[in-house]
Amino acid sequence: MSAIRLFFALWPSPPLAASLGEWAQAARPHCGGRVMRTETLHLTLAFLGPVEAQLADALAAATPDRCVPPGELELDRYGVFKRQRILWAGPREAPAPLQAMHDGLWHWLADYGLAAPPQPFRPHVTLLRNIERDDPPPPPPDPLIWRYDRLVLVASESQTGGSRYRIVAQSRPLSP
Ligand code: ATP
Ligand code: MG
C-alpha cells in the first residue's frame, strides 16, 4: 500500500501569509537563499512522515473533531537553522498554549501508534532555504500577530522542483 507524507500545521490567512512573504523578502538581501512561495507558508505542529493510506484516511476523518482553543501567536524574530540552511520567523520559544497544542496533538497521535520526535518543539515558519550565512538579520520593527482557530492536516507530495502541499482536513473552529 502506498504511504502518504503528512503533517499537522497552522496555516496563515492570506493577509498574514502576505506579511510573512514581506519578512522573507526583507531578509533575503542579508541571507541570500530561496524565498518560499507565499501560498506554501505554514507553521508545522507535528510532522508525521509517511503513513499508510488507511491511517491517513483515519486521521483525516478524525481531524475535524480535534478542535483547538483559539489563540494568538506573536512572531517577533528571525532565526536560522544552520544545518538545514533555513531562515525562519517565529517566537523566541513556544508560548504555553502552542506548546500545549503540540503536546496534546502528539498525545492523541499516540493512539494511532505515532510517537513525537525527541527534539523539543521549535515553532517556526520557514521563509528562506539554502541561505548563505549563519546569522539572522534584525527583524522588522512590528511583530506579526497570528490569530489561529484551527489546525490543518497537510499531505506533502514530492514533485520535480520540491514538495507540494495539499490540505486534506482541518479542525472545526470552536464557536466563540
Ligand atoms: P522538501 O523536504 O521536499 O524540501 P518540505 O521540507 O517543505 O520539502 P516536508 O519534508 O514534507 O516538505 O516537510 C513538511 C513540513 O514538515 C515542513 O514544515 C518541514 O519543515 C517539516 N518537517 C519535515 N521533516 C521534519 C522533521 N523530521 N521534524 C520536524 N518537522 C519536519
Ligand atoms: Mg523536508
Q: How are the secondary structure elements laid out?
A:
Blueprint: E1 3-10, H1 14-31, E2 34-35, E3 43-52, H2 53-62, E4 71-75, E5 77-81, E6 86-90, H3 96-109, E7 125-129, E8 144-148, E9 152-159, E10 162-170
Antiparallel strand pairs: 1-3, 1-9, 2-7, 4-8, 5-6, 6-7, 9-10
The structure holds adenosine-5'-triphosphate and magnesium ion (MG).
Tell me the Rg in angstroms: 16 Å
Number of strands: 10
The number of helices is 3
The small molecules bound here are: adenosine-5'-triphosphate, magnesium ion
Spans of at least 5 consecutive residues whose pLDDT stays below 50 are: none
The major pleated sheet works out as: 4 strands, antiparallel
| Span between termini | 42 Å
Strand order of the largest sheet: 3-1-9-10
Specify the structural class: alpha+beta
User: What is the approximate shape?
Assistant: globular
The proportion of strand residues reads: 35-45%
User: H/E order of the elements?
Assistant: EHEEHEEEHEEEE
What is the helix content? Answer: 10-25%
Q: Average pLDDT across residues?
A: 96
Describe the protein.
- The protein is of the alpha+beta class and 176 residues long.
- It is built from 3 helices and 10 strands.
- The strands form 3 sheets. The chain has a 4-stranded antiparallel β-sheet with strand order 3-1-9-10, covered by helices on one side. Strands 2-7-6-5 form a 4-stranded antiparallel β-sheet, with helices on one face.
- The chain starts with a strand and ends in a 6-residue tail after the last strand.
- The protein binds adenosine-5'-triphosphate and magnesium ion (MG).
- Adenosine-5'-triphosphate (ATP) is lined by residues 5, 7, 44, 47, 117, 126, 156, 162-163.
